[in-house]
Design goal:
Layout: E1 2-11, H1 14-24, E2 40-43, H2 48-59, E3 71-78, H3 83-88, H4 97-113, E4 118-124, E5 131-136, E6 139-140, E7 143-144, H5 146-150, H6 153-171, E8 175-176, H7 189-195, H8 202-229
Parallel strand pairs: 1-8
Antiparallel strand pairs: 1-3, 2-4, 3-5, 4-5, 6-7
């Protein structure tokens, strides 16, 4: 079984937005990317920074809070082992699985963050597994308010749950959600790129942690058995 993957990161400077834009729209060479394959812009232009600024101007936001969250970058993808099915399967309506996945993924963030706030999104097809990068303005009630969307762990879990539920009608037999409350360390979008095809999803990491915990419990159990099985020493 493959897994639906949803990552969200906070961006706190304009330079970082520009950097993400340059990377996502291939303004420089990217390792592990095939420059013979074209990516697909799903929303906005080839300049996410300009798209972000246009939305900020539209909202009338003139002063940006120091160290405040200016944008989110969202990564949506799936386990590499489901790539072939995504690229080749069609449903009864003749829809290609990958196209339906893109539509459902974009619909989810449009509903969660307000369609107007999704200022830029691109589908990457030039790397090992198709994935979507989206730049989002965290606007709520006409001001930047990241706490409304990702203020605590419960809201992050809601996003993870919601993303999987949005895919479930079409992909319930192909994709599953990683276990909620996983002890696995979150994999950042940058780590995703650094690790490339070797990315380890949350469930895999959790299995590793659980195995380590199980090994420790076995050792502890062995020690306890040794103590209990040891003959009692009677004092005279």
């Amino acid at each position: 079984m493959s897994y639906a993957i949803f990552r969200i990161e906070k961006i706190k400077s304009k330079s970082s937005i520009s950097g993400r834009s340059n990377h996502n729209h291939r303004m420089f060479k990217v390792n592990n990317a095939n420059d013979q394959i074209n990516n697909k812009i799903l929303k906005g232009s080839s300049n996410a920074m300009e798209d972000w600024q246009a939305r900020i101007d539209e909202l009338g936001i003139e002063k940006l809070r120091k160290n405040g969250v200016l944008a989110y970058e969202v990564l949506m993808t799936f386990s590499q082992d489901s790539k072939e099915k995504m690229l080749n399967l069609t449903n009864s309506k003749g829809e290609l699985a990958l196209d339906r996945w893109c539509e459902d993924s974009m619909r989810f963030i449009n509903e969660k963050f307000n369609k107007k706030n999704i200022v830029n999104a691109v589908l990457h097809l030039d790397e090992s597994t198709p994935h979507i990068h989206a730049i989002i303005v965290p606007e709520h009630n006409n001001r930047l308010n990241a706490k409304h969307f990702t203020g605590d762990r419960s809201k992050m879990i809601e996003l993870q749950d919601g993303y999987y539920e949005s895919l479930k009608p079409a992909f319930g037999k192909l994709l599953r959600r990683g276990k909620a409350g996983s002890k696995a360390k979150h994999i950042s979008i940058q780590q995703y790129y650094n690790q490339g095809p070797a990315i380890i999803d949350d469930l895999t990491k959790e299995n590793i942690l659980l195995k380590e915990e199980n090994d420790e419990l076995k050792k502890e159990n062995f020690k306890l058995k040794s103590i209990f099985n040891k003959p009692l020493q009677h004092k005279n």
